[in-house]
Amino acid sequence: MTLPFLVILPLFGAFSMPIVSLLGKKLKEYWAVIISGATFAVAAKIFYTVWKTNEIILYTLGSDNPIGRGVNFPIRIVWEVDLFGALLALTITFVGFLAIIYSLGYMKHDTGLEKYYTLVLVLELGMLGIVVTGDIFNFYVFLEIMSIASYALVAFRNDTWEGIEAGIKYMFVGSLASSFILLGIALLYGQYGTLTMSYLAIKIAENPTLVAKVALAFLIGGLLFKSGAVPVHMWLADAHPAAPSSISAMLSGLVIKAGGVYAIARIIFSIFNPGLHTYLRTFNAPAINMDVIGWVIVFFACLTLLVGNAMAVVQTDMKRLFAFSSVGQIGYIMLGIGIGVLAYGTRAGELALAGAIYHIVNHALIKALLFLVAGVVIHEVGTKNLNELSGLAKRMPLTTFFFIIGAAAIIGLPPLNGFASKWIIYESSAMYNPILAAIAVVGTVFSLAAYTKVLFTFLGKESERVRDAKEPEKSMLLPMLILVVAIIVMGLLPWQISDKIMIPAAKMLEQLNGEYILALLKFIGGA
Amino acid sequence: MGSDMGLIVKTMARATIPLIGIFGAYVISHGHLTPGGGFQGGATIAGAGILFLIAFGINEAKEKINKSLYSALEGLGGLVFLAAGMLGLGVAFFYNTLWHNGPIFNGEPGTLLSAGYLPIMNLAVGLKVYTGLVSAVFAMALFRRWRK
Description:
The complex is a heterodimer.
Chain A: H1 5-23, H2 27-53, E1 57-60, E2 78-81, H3 83-106, H4 113-132, H5 136-154, H6 161-192, H7 197-206, H8 210-227, H9 234-242, H10 245-271, H11 274-282, H12 290-313, H13 318-342, H14 347-381, H15 397-411, H16 417-432, H17 434-458, H18 474-492, H19 494-510, H20 515-524
Antiparallel strand pairs in A: 1-2
Chain B: H1 7-29, H2 38-64, H3 67-86, H4 97-101, H5 118-141
Helix pairs in contact in B: 1-2, 2-5, 3-5
């Protein structure tokens, strides 16, 4: 079984880092690269297994069976990995691996690097734990591992005022959000007496009380915070510009997805399954009205994609612009998830979920590329102020090319990967409600304006500041090149990827026949 | 900066630091039998370390506390915990194979060597908590002075 190695490897890397860093100066960097590369290989293997068999992997910690002896309910921590989780694990390890390679050159001038690599591996560990776990308290623990590692990494350059300010702001609001999530979990545990997600789903369907609704509200509220949805997105706009660029790439590409939208989707579809509750309502049994949750998410999604993209237009700081653009793209993903809840069980709902999952992967790749480009500009020119930058194309042709690919992909130009995922989201939202599609298109118009503005800093007349700029070293160019190749290749095969990976992933997340619950129930039945 | 503490405090610290340390070690090693465990015991021993730091001052502590050693020991604590979890990987991650199959750790329940990997994990967590807390407090004590 390879699944536990997804957590064992980064944990081993993080714990052995202080010892390895005593052995040699450069060794710790290569050690981080080796560990994250091996984790990527494990994630690829797990993804291939899940994709090939199209079945949910259920792994029990501590025994071969989640059910306690003499009782018929699960007593152990279980990890349940469906295609959505495996796909996210693959994305996380891929982008994490590239960010660590990029750090070899980018973080060269910083001190305390053994702490940096330990924290990056811990951050990766937390995100991987979130996407594999099937236990809600285990989920909370991994969420906190991820959050605390990212607070420390945002404030890593503690000799800069903005690093400290952003770190404190992120830590205060993030801890508050985490405590909401913990409160929600405590309420669920107090009411239903179990922490296993799929068993909790059965218990809630048997007896949907007010407590379950309050707990759901706390969980969604806390997780909207973590994903950077609009009324509570302000930490994101500070944290991403202040962090080192390799960390911004991971924060924007991965942390807000794994700890935010993935967790929202997992809790809604696996614990409070809309299909299950609609089914109960047809028999006039007490049930939770999941349409309310769907509309709440769609409301915040529309707000997020309008405000996020509109705020991106007026920024003069390159990384802050990318950060607001991330907020905007989270809006599209949440719109897909919201419509997936509202139009549950229909073609539009399935397409919307597939689009959301597709956009999670695409945005992780594109935004990682864009933040790495911003890191190169800061590293070589020493400023990220768009008013001081202009005409970088001549001195840094490769970086400019990478930026153009990234910007075109995030707006959604056809030959690149952003097109297909956005198209699916537009199409499904138009199928459900044309007004939502119109709002989504308005968001893209803002996004187009914002990226055109950045484009002018790369083209145009050469300014004073950029005279001595040159291309960065190979260890920084290589990760960007790999991301560009991935973006172009995924852009050339959009519908194949959608049919072969994203639609099956959406089906497994939607679990029309309760597959997530059945994966556990088959142990209880003894079959 | 020397220590501001007087003779009484220093003498009392000499007397109590070993006692606190022994009590912490007791809490850690009996984690599977009595209330407490790795975290509580580790934090108790770290209390002894902080008492040493306060009673004898930062200069004395600088000679005694080796940053790399504490950092490496903290990593070692984590590695031992992970290794104990991986012992039963043939069945599952965190499978308590030492309890089910022995060799030494499967004694009569209630005795010291009776809970499989739990005593090992408590020792590892205790080491990690102690070194981690002492390093954190020591690093804060060494932080740049108020004005400079």
